[in-house]
Specification:
- The protein is built from 16 helices and 17 strands.
- It has a five-stranded parallel beta sheet. Strands 5-6-10-11 form a four-stranded parallel beta sheet.
- It is globular and about 60 Å long.
- The chain binds one RNA strand of 85 nucleotides through helix 6, strand 15, helix 12 and helix 15.
RNA sequence: GGACGGGUGGCCGAGCGGUUAAUGGCAACAGGCUGUAAACCUGUCGCUCCUUGGAGCUACGGAGGUUCGAAUCCUCCCCCGUCCA
C-alpha cells in the first residue's frame, strides 16, 4: 500500500535524486503486494502484486515460457487474448542460449521477446539439478555441463542474480538446490542448508547493487520433511524478501505430501508477502494450494500436455487422440470461451493432432492456458465474494467423481 | 510368345533352411507428462483360451515336393512390374 502510494508520488520525488546516492526508485521495493480479500476459513487470499510491468491479480497462474516463448503462442495471444499478466522464463536456458549479455544488449528480456507485462525468471537451479550430465557442487556454487554442447559452466548465487538482472526480470529467483525424491533426511538437511546459504549470498550481492525494478525471491527447500521446511522458512525470513517461493515440489512424491509441505510453512512465511509454489499443479490442485496460502503458481502441464494431446476441460480431461472424438462435432469444452472452443470441433482438433499439424499445438495450448487462467479467475472470484470454502468443496467433489 | 525382377502380417518393407508369430517404419489403439533437453516418451498391435506366465491354432500368392525342420530350396500354376518380340 505504502509502496503504491509512494510510486504515485515518484514523479515529484525525483527532485531528491541529486542529494541521494541512488535513484529514488531504489529506496522502494521492486514489487509490492497488497491483500484485498481473505477467506475466513482457509488461508486463501486475493491480492494485487504491483510490478514495474503492471499489476497482477493474485492468486495467479504463470504460464511457462522457458525459452522466452510459451511454445505455440504469440505474445499477443498471451497478453491480449488470454490476459496473461506475468510469464515465467528460464535463466539456465536463456543464459546458455542466446546468452544474457546478448539479451541485455537487445534491451532486456521484455524488449527482446516483445513482452509488455511482468516476467519472473527461474534461477536455473532446477535445470542444473535435473538435467543429466556432469555437475559438481562446490562452496561457491555449482559447476555443470551444458546440455547443448557439453561446455562447462558455473552458476553461483551471485552470478545467477547478475544474469537475471541482465534480463531485467521483474522477479528473480535465487539459485537453489532442488533435491530429487526420495532423499534421506540427512541429505535433505545438508542440501537445505546449502540453499539457505546460497540465498543469503544471493541477497547480499543483490542488496549491494541498485536493482530498483527487480525483486528477488528466496526458495524454501527441505525435501519432504516438515521440520526442515520450517527451519528453512524461518532462516529465510531474515532476508526480508519481497516474496517467498516454495520449491522442491512435484518431484515424484505422493500428491498429498506436496500439500503437507506447503502447510508446514504457512504460519512461518509472512502474510504480507506473496508466496509462490513452484512447478504446480493439476487443475484440481490449484485451489488446494491457494487454500494453503499460495498466491503464485507456475506449471508446464497446460502447455506441454496440450502439445501431447492432453486437454483440460471444465468436464475433466480430454485425450484428443481417443477414437471416441473422431466424429465428435462438439467444441472441446462447451463452457469455455476461448478461441479454440469457440471455433473448432473435437473432431477437427483430433484430425490436426493425428496429422501432426502445427495448428494443433497452437489451438490446444491456447485452450489449456485459458483453462488454467479461468480456474484462477474462479478461485479469485470465490475468495473476493467470500465463497471460497464452498468453491473448494465443489472442486473436491468433482475430482472425486472424476476418479 | 520370350528374358529378367517380384508377390511377407492394415500399408510400406527386411529376412533368404532351425534362435521367426516373423527386424524396421507408417497407420491403428492405449498409457505417461507437474520451477519444459518434450509438436515428446512408453506400451499393445494374427486368432482363441487360462491368473502372471504360458498353452493351442492359423500364417510369408496357390498346390505339391525335398528335409528331422521351409517365408527361405525344388516343380507346376496364378498374379504384378520392366524390357525384347
Amino acid at each position: 500500500m505504502l509502496a503504491k502510494f509512494c510510486r504515485r508520488l515518484l514523479g515529484s520525488w525525483h527532485c531528491f535524486d541529486s542529494i541521494l546516492p541512488y535513484p529514488v526508485e531504489s529506496y522502494l521495493p521492486a514489487i509490492s503486494f497488497e491483500v484485498v480479500a481473505e477467506c475466513p476459513q482457509t488461508r486463501a487470499r486475493a491480492g494485487l502484486l504491483h510490478t514495474a510491468h503492471g499489476t497482477i491479480e493474485t492468486p495467479v497462474f504463470m504460464p511457462v515460457g522457458t525459452q522466452a516463448t510459451v511454445k505455440g503462442l504469440t505474445q499477443r495471444d498471451l497478453a491480449e487474448d488470454l490476459g496473461v499478466k506475468v510469464l515465467l522464463a528460464n535463466t539456465y536456458h536463456l543464459y546458455l542460449r542466446p546468452g544474457h549479455e546478448l539479451i541485455r544488449q537487445m534491451g532486456g528480456l521484455h524488449r527482446f521477446m516483445s513482452w509488455p507485462n511482468a516476467i519472473l525468471t527461474d534461477s536455473g537451479g532446477f535445470q542444473v539439478f535435473s538435467l543429466s550430465g556432469l555437475r559438481k557442487i562446490t562452496d561457491h556454487g555449482v559447476v555443470f555441463q551444458s546440455h547443448l554442447d557439453g561446455d562447462t559452466h558455473t552458476f553461483t548465487p551471485q552470478s545467477t542474480v547478475d544474469v537475471q538482472l541482465a534480463f531485467g526480470s521483474d522477479i528473480c529467483m535465487v539459485l537453489d538446490e532442488c533435491p530429487e525424491y526420495p532423499v534421506s533426511h540427512e541429505y535433505a538437511r545438508e542440501s537445505m542448508h546449502r540453499t539457505v546459504r546460497w540465498a543469503q549470498e544471493a541477497f547480499a550481492h543483490y542488496r549491494s547493487l541498485s536493482a530498483p525494478h527487480n525483486a528477488l525471491f528466496p526458495i524454501v527447500q527441505g525435501s519432504m520433511f516438515s521440520d526442515l521446511r520450517k527451519e528453512c522458512a524461518a532462516a529465510l525470513l531474515d532476508l526480508d524478501a519481497d516474496g517467498y517461493a516454495i520449491g522442491g515440489l512435484s518431484v515424484g512424491e505422493p500428491r498429498p505430501l506436496s500439500l503437507e509441505m506447503v502447510e508446514a510453512t504457512e504460519d512461518i512465511l509472512p502474510r504480507q508477502r506473496p508466496r509462490y509454489a513452484m512447478g504446480v499443479g493439476m487443475p484440481a490442485e490449484l485451489p488446494e494450494y491457494v487454500a494453503r496460502g499460495i498466491d503464485m503458481m507456475d506449471c508446464v502441464l497446460p502447455s506441454r500436455n496440450a502439445r501431447n494431446g492432453y486437454l483440460f476441460t471444465s468436464e475433466g480431461r480430454v485425450i484428443i487422440k481417443h477414437a471416441r472424438y473422431k466424429d465428435d462435432a462438439r467444441p472441446l469444452d462447451p463452457q469455455c470461451q476461448c478461441y479454440t472452443c469457440s471455433n473448432y470441433s473435437r473432431s477437427y482438433l483430433r484430425h490436426l493432432f493425428q496429422s501432426g499439424e502445427i495448428l494443433y499445438a497452437v489451438l490446444a495450448t491456447r485452450h489449456n492456458i485459458r483453462r488454467y487462467l479461468d480456474i484462477m479467475r474462479e478461485i479469485r472470484h470465490a475468495i473476493v465474494s467470500n465463497q471460497f470454502p464452498e468453491y473448494l468443496r465443489t472442486v473436491r467433489m468433482a475430482s472425486v467423481d472424476a476418479g
